[in-house]
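To close the section, here is one more complete example, presented without commentary so you can practise reading it yourself. The ligand is flavin mononucleotide.
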Amino acid sequence: MDNVVAPHPALREGRIGGLVLANRLAVSPMTRVSAEPDGTPTAEMADYYAEFAEGGFGLVLTEGTYTDAAYAQGYHNQPGIVTRRHVEAWREITGRVHAAGSVAVLQLMHAGALSQGNPHRSGTAGPSAVPPRGEMMPEYGGSGPWPLPAAMTRADIAEAVAGFVSSAENAREAGFDGVEVHGANGYLIDQFLTGYTNLRDDFYGGPVGNRVRLAAEVVGAIRAAVGPDFCVGIRLSQGKVNDHGHRWPGGAHDAEIIFAALAEAGATYIHIASEGRDWIETARLDGGVTITGLARRVTGLPVIANGGMHDSARAAQVLADGHADLLSVGRGALANPDLPRRLRAGVPLEEYDHRILDPMATLANARSRRRAATPLGARAGA
Ligand SMILES: Cc1cc2nc3c(=O)[nH]c(=O)nc-3n(C[C@H](O)[C@H](O)[C@H](O)COP(=O)(O)O)c2cc1C
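Output:
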């Protein structure tokens, strides 16, 4: 008997702004600290990103990429989008992703106070001189307490915004279809959004309408520079790499103000990260509302949900119940760069193993997987 598999709803065509996606599955942004010391992406990184596109992901979001040669860089061996060398190397990657029929969006990241490796400046900078919670991340080469950041001056803020703008222009020149501003997980933009790291008494601090100002300024300034058609998304989260349990104190009220400001500034889409947690754990707001559903309702923009979306039943439910338009997959994509093809063919997924985070292991895996590639249909029948 023929093995007929009903298409999963995530395999339907998706759209963000003017971009048409082969399906609703995106690779979530994932830092891999595997660029050259000067931030130039490598040939192995091109193979790594191409593998997701060849595996059928409709949208490939890159790892967080630093935006200036001032305070933006977060880790050693993080890629940048600042120099001509960076642009030329990323161009190879966008070419490979496009050749496989996928859309490429670069995540623009300013680490702010959560920087643990920046050759450009000594010291770190954030909205206020507040010691970050937790400790530096060993998986990205850090150890011990975070340094105390300097409170950013208005000139520092202007420099950071200018870095986002020139990086977005560089990304477009490198062939990217869009950029995603990293406003999630505790980095600079999230530090401004968060009351306990932002103690400023100017118009960037105080009520949530002020704390979202930097995010909105960055989106607005990029939009003004790149014009109406280029995709400018933003990623937000309640939890942070150094404070997983954080939730927006004003719940849905804060969320509405934040989402409205970003839509007004010209964002193309909203992406809600679920840092290290399942979607529903971080998405639920009071009164049965989800943060992603609320973002859709307030902005009318496409919304990407994240957190355990490699679970196909959960993924189907989130789409069917109207909580999101697209889904991003992190750990499940590392373990299964061909996840969309597997979903289509009904092939079970490989389990995620954290040892894959060793950059050399991932790249070696990618190469050996390619060598051992067996047509998925054949495997499904085995
Ligand atoms: C190795 C690794 C690196 C990550 N780096 C980033 C990053 O650069 N930018 C970002 O927004 N999120 C980053 N994340 C978070 C993921 O994008 C995603 O939100 C998280 O893994 C939850 O999704 P999942 O359940 O599908 O794994 C990273 C996660 C992992 C596992």
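Once you have examined the tokens, check your reading against these statements. DSSP finds 14 helices and twelve strands in the chain. Residues 28-31, 63-64, 107, 182, 184-185, 235, 273-275, 306-309, 329-332, 357 surround flavin mononucleotide (CB under 6 Å).
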